[in-house]
Amino acid sequence: DGGITQSPKYLFRKEGQNVTLSCEQNLNHDAMYWYRQDPGQGLRLIYYSQIVNDFQKGDIAEGYSVSREKKESFPLTVTSAQKNPTAFYLCASSLGTRNEKLFFGSGTQLSVL
Amino acid sequence: GENVEQHPSTLSVQEGDSAVIKCTYSDSASNYFPWYKQELGKRPQLIIDIRSNVGEKKDQRIAVTLNKTAKHFSLHITETQPEDSAVYFCAASNTGFQKLVFGTGTRLLVSP
Q1: What CA–CA distance (Å, rounded) separates B70 from B112?
Q2: Inter-residue contact A63 to A81 (CB < 8 Å)
Q3: Are B40 and B86 in contact (CB under 8 A)?
Q4: N or C end of chain A: which has fewer CB within 10 A?
Q5: Cα–chain-centroid distance for residue A59?
Q6: A97 touches chain B (CB under 8 A)
Q7: Do the Cβ atoms of B104 and A41 come within 8 Å?
Q8: Closest residue of A to B95, CA-based?
Q9: Please, which pLDDT band fits residue B16 given cuts at 50, 70 and 90?
Q10: Of the candidates B76, B9, B81, which has an alpha carbon nearest to the alpha carbon of residue B47?
């Protein structure tokens, strides 16, 4: 998938369980993002990070958490507080911090058991 | 904050016809307008983008036009082919690190 890798491709969550989605990039991009995609809706921003050890909430951050300990990695944890987690999650990165020319991963489909 | 509306939600055309997808935005400070294409089961990919100092940009069969006064921009695809079938998303943002706001997507179906 050429530069940005998301895993797993499919993930199932049990009630009350936290799950973590992985996102790794080897593009040397500065900024990384997490989007949620629901059918019939656009991509909604969950969290973003411009530099290591710093990140900001997007429009729908409640029930999610992130970390940016390395430039290459931006994992997303879906906590038990997220009551409607079933969605397609997309990670993206961009060179520089101007939110332009996003390069997306192939996504993780999260479903609730 | 910025709000982006996209129309139509679905668009069916015959191969060889043109297709036009329109988006409107609310924040007059927005100055960057990309378009992403997402094929079924695949990741979105940037196909073209335009900045507010340009009124039109073309890349082979695709073009984007921008009307800053009316706050709308459009994607034009000429001589459509079946491989153009996908969901297309418009988006808008302004300078500095302001988040990219996406439209709700247009599902384009090109029939042979």
Answers
A1: 35
A2: yes
A3: yes
A4: C
A5: 13
A6: yes
A7: yes
A8: A98
A9: very high
A10: B76
* Cis check: omega of the bond before A8, within 30 degrees of 0: yes
B96: tokens are 């500095």
Which residues have C-beta within 8 Å of that of residue B27, sequence separation ≥ 6?
B1, B2, B3, B92, B94
The pair of three-digit structure tokens given for residue A104, joined into one six-digit string: 């997306």
Looking at residues A3-18, what average pLDDT do you find?
92
d(CA A91, CA A75): 9
Contact B49 A43 (CB under 8 A): no
3-state secondary structure of B82: helix
Instruction: Tell me: pLDDT of A1 over 50.
Output: no
Model confidence at A2, pLDDT cuts 50, 70, 90, reads low
**Strand blocks (E) in B1-112:** 4-7, 10-14, 19-25, 32-38, 45-51, 56-59, 62-67, 72-77, 86-92, 101-102, 106-111
Alpha carbons B47 and A107: distance in angstroms, whole number: 19
A-chain residues near B98 (CB < 8 A): 99
pLDDT in tens, A42-100: 899 999 999 999 999 999 999 999 999 999 999 999 999 998 999 999 999 998 777 78
